[in-house]
Amino acid sequence: MLSRPNEKLSLGPSASWTSYQKDLSGYTLGQGGYYSPGTNLSAGLSLTWLRRLPDWSWRLETGVAGPWTRNRGSDRYPLKGLLPPDTPDLRSRSGGSTSLEAGWHLKAALERRLGDRLVLGLAAEARKSPDYSPVEGTLYLRYTFGDSLLDLPMGPEAPVPFAEW
Fold first, then answer.
1. Cα gap 152→150, rounded to integer Å
2. pLDDT by residue (tens digit) across 28-48?
Protein backbone atom coordinates (compact mmCIF):
# COMPACT_ATOMS: atom_id res chain seq x y z
CA MET A 1 0.00 0.00 0.00
CA LEU A 2 2.83 2.38 0.93
CA SER A 3 6.55 1.97 0.36
CA ARG A 4 9.02 4.73 1.19
CA PRO A 5 12.68 4.49 2.20
CA ASN A 6 11.82 4.78 5.92
CA GLU A 7 8.20 3.68 6.04
CA LYS A 8 6.14 0.74 4.78
CA LEU A 9 2.47 -0.08 5.13
CA SER A 10 1.15 -3.36 3.79
CA LEU A 11 -2.15 -5.20 3.79
CA GLY A 12 -2.17 -8.85 2.90
CA PRO A 13 -4.64 -11.69 2.63
CA SER A 14 -3.77 -15.25 3.55
CA ALA A 15 -5.43 -18.58 2.94
CA SER A 16 -4.54 -22.18 3.69
CA TRP A 17 -6.06 -25.60 3.28
CA THR A 18 -4.94 -28.82 4.94
CA SER A 19 -6.41 -32.27 4.89
CA TYR A 20 -5.51 -35.45 6.77
CA GLN A 21 -6.49 -38.96 5.76
CA LYS A 22 -7.14 -40.02 9.38
CA ASP A 23 -7.97 -38.11 12.54
CA LEU A 24 -5.26 -39.25 14.96
CA SER A 25 -5.85 -36.63 17.64
CA GLY A 26 -6.82 -39.12 20.37
CA TYR A 27 -4.56 -40.55 23.08
CA THR A 28 -5.35 -44.25 22.75
CA LEU A 29 -3.17 -46.98 21.22
CA GLY A 30 -2.76 -46.27 17.51
CA GLN A 31 -3.51 -42.57 17.83
CA GLY A 32 -0.83 -39.89 17.51
CA GLY A 33 -2.16 -37.30 19.92
CA TYR A 34 -1.70 -34.56 17.32
CA TYR A 35 -4.18 -32.20 15.68
CA SER A 36 -5.21 -33.76 12.38
CA PRO A 37 -8.65 -32.65 11.21
CA GLY A 38 -10.17 -34.12 8.08
CA THR A 39 -10.33 -30.66 6.49
CA ASN A 40 -9.11 -27.28 7.69
CA LEU A 41 -9.76 -24.16 5.64
CA SER A 42 -8.49 -20.82 6.91
CA ALA A 43 -8.61 -17.26 5.60
CA GLY A 44 -7.17 -14.10 7.11
CA LEU A 45 -6.15 -10.51 6.60
CA SER A 46 -3.12 -8.77 8.11
CA LEU A 47 -1.92 -5.17 8.30
CA THR A 48 1.72 -4.19 8.98
CA TRP A 49 3.21 -0.73 9.51
CA LEU A 50 6.97 -0.20 9.70
CA ARG A 51 8.56 3.19 10.39
CA ARG A 52 12.10 4.41 11.05
CA LEU A 53 13.35 7.82 12.24
CA PRO A 54 16.98 8.72 13.05
CA ASP A 55 16.73 7.46 16.68
CA TRP A 56 13.45 5.49 16.64
CA SER A 57 12.14 2.43 14.82
CA TRP A 58 8.84 0.57 15.19
CA ARG A 59 6.71 -2.23 13.82
CA LEU A 60 2.96 -2.65 14.34
CA GLU A 61 1.15 -5.72 13.05
CA THR A 62 -2.43 -6.84 13.41
CA GLY A 63 -4.59 -9.40 11.76
CA VAL A 64 -7.75 -11.47 11.87
CA ALA A 65 -8.34 -15.04 10.75
CA GLY A 66 -11.24 -17.43 10.55
CA PRO A 67 -10.64 -21.17 10.27
CA TRP A 68 -13.35 -23.66 9.31
CA THR A 69 -12.66 -27.23 10.42
CA ARG A 70 -14.39 -30.54 9.76
CA ASN A 71 -13.45 -33.71 11.63
CA ARG A 72 -14.69 -37.04 10.37
CA GLY A 73 -15.52 -39.72 12.87
CA SER A 74 -12.62 -42.05 13.70
CA ASP A 75 -11.97 -45.37 15.39
CA ARG A 76 -11.07 -45.08 19.06
CA TYR A 77 -8.45 -47.84 18.55
CA PRO A 78 -7.18 -47.78 14.94
CA LEU A 79 -4.85 -50.76 15.58
CA LYS A 80 -7.43 -53.22 16.90
CA GLY A 81 -5.19 -56.25 16.25
CA LEU A 82 -2.78 -55.12 18.98
CA LEU A 83 -5.44 -55.30 21.71
CA PRO A 84 -7.23 -58.29 23.27
CA PRO A 85 -10.61 -58.91 21.60
CA ASP A 86 -12.47 -58.39 24.91
CA THR A 87 -11.17 -54.80 25.34
CA PRO A 88 -14.11 -52.56 26.34
CA ASP A 89 -15.24 -50.21 23.56
CA LEU A 90 -12.78 -51.79 21.11
CA ARG A 91 -15.08 -51.07 18.17
CA SER A 92 -16.24 -47.61 19.27
CA ARG A 93 -15.89 -44.53 17.08
CA SER A 94 -15.78 -40.84 17.85
CA GLY A 95 -18.37 -38.64 16.19
CA GLY A 96 -17.50 -36.07 13.57
CA SER A 97 -17.75 -32.32 14.10
CA THR A 98 -17.62 -29.02 12.25
CA SER A 99 -16.52 -25.66 13.65
CA LEU A 100 -16.07 -22.08 12.51
CA GLU A 101 -13.98 -19.85 14.77
CA ALA A 102 -12.33 -16.46 14.64
CA GLY A 103 -9.13 -15.06 16.08
CA TRP A 104 -6.90 -12.02 16.02
CA HIS A 105 -3.35 -10.99 16.82
CA LEU A 106 -1.54 -7.77 17.65
CA LYS A 107 2.23 -7.40 17.67
CA ALA A 108 4.29 -4.28 18.38
CA ALA A 109 8.02 -3.56 18.61
CA LEU A 110 9.75 -0.27 19.38
CA GLU A 111 13.45 0.59 19.50
CA ARG A 112 15.15 3.80 20.68
CA ARG A 113 18.83 4.58 20.10
CA LEU A 114 20.37 5.63 23.44
CA GLY A 115 23.91 6.23 22.18
CA ASP A 116 26.37 5.26 19.48
CA ARG A 117 26.26 1.56 20.39
CA LEU A 118 23.26 1.10 22.71
CA VAL A 119 19.60 0.56 21.75
CA LEU A 120 16.64 0.07 24.10
CA GLY A 121 13.82 -2.11 22.79
CA LEU A 122 10.33 -3.11 23.80
CA ALA A 123 8.23 -5.78 22.11
CA ALA A 124 4.79 -7.19 22.90
CA GLU A 125 2.44 -9.67 21.29
CA ALA A 126 -1.12 -10.77 22.02
CA ARG A 127 -3.17 -13.46 20.30
CA LYS A 128 -6.78 -14.41 20.85
CA SER A 129 -8.61 -17.50 19.69
CA PRO A 130 -11.15 -19.74 21.41
CA ASP A 131 -8.55 -22.14 22.87
CA TYR A 132 -5.29 -20.17 22.79
CA SER A 133 -4.73 -16.62 24.06
CA PRO A 134 -1.09 -15.92 24.99
CA VAL A 135 0.24 -12.46 25.80
CA GLU A 136 3.97 -11.83 26.03
CA GLY A 137 6.33 -8.91 26.27
CA THR A 138 10.07 -8.26 26.18
CA LEU A 139 12.20 -5.34 27.30
CA TYR A 140 15.79 -5.49 26.07
CA LEU A 141 19.05 -3.59 25.61
CA ARG A 142 21.10 -4.21 22.47
CA TYR A 143 24.80 -3.33 22.47
CA THR A 144 26.57 -3.27 19.11
CA PHE A 145 30.28 -3.96 18.71
CA GLY A 146 31.91 -2.11 15.87
CA ASP A 147 30.43 0.72 13.81
CA SER A 148 26.85 1.23 14.97
CA LEU A 149 25.92 4.64 13.60
CA LEU A 150 24.07 2.89 10.83
CA ASP A 151 20.31 3.26 10.58
CA LEU A 152 18.19 1.34 13.04
CA PRO A 153 16.48 -1.62 11.40
CA MET A 154 13.11 -0.80 9.93
CA GLY A 155 10.71 -3.08 11.72
CA PRO A 156 12.71 -4.07 14.80
CA GLU A 157 12.65 -7.67 15.99
CA ALA A 158 13.17 -8.53 19.65
CA PRO A 159 15.82 -11.12 20.53
CA VAL A 160 14.52 -14.68 20.36
CA PRO A 161 14.12 -16.22 23.85
CA PHE A 162 16.42 -19.16 24.56
CA ALA A 163 13.42 -21.47 25.01
CA GLU A 164 12.40 -20.87 21.36
CA TRP A 165 15.74 -21.84 19.78
1. 6
2. 777 777 778 889 999 999 999
Is the distance from CB of 106 to CB of 47 less than 8 angstroms? Answer: no
Closest by CA to 101, choosing from 12, 41, 35, 34, is 41
Name the residue among 155, 164, 160 with its Cα closest to residue 52: 155
Q: Are 63 and 105 in contact (CB under 8 A)?
A: yes
The answer to whether 82 and 104 are in contact (CB under 8 A) is no
pTM for this predicted structure: 0.73
List b or e across 83-118, with b for residues whose CB sees 16 or more CB atoms inside 10 angstroms: eeeeeeeeeeeeeeeeeeeebebebbbbbbbeeeee
pLDDT band for position 149 (cuts 50, 70, 90): low
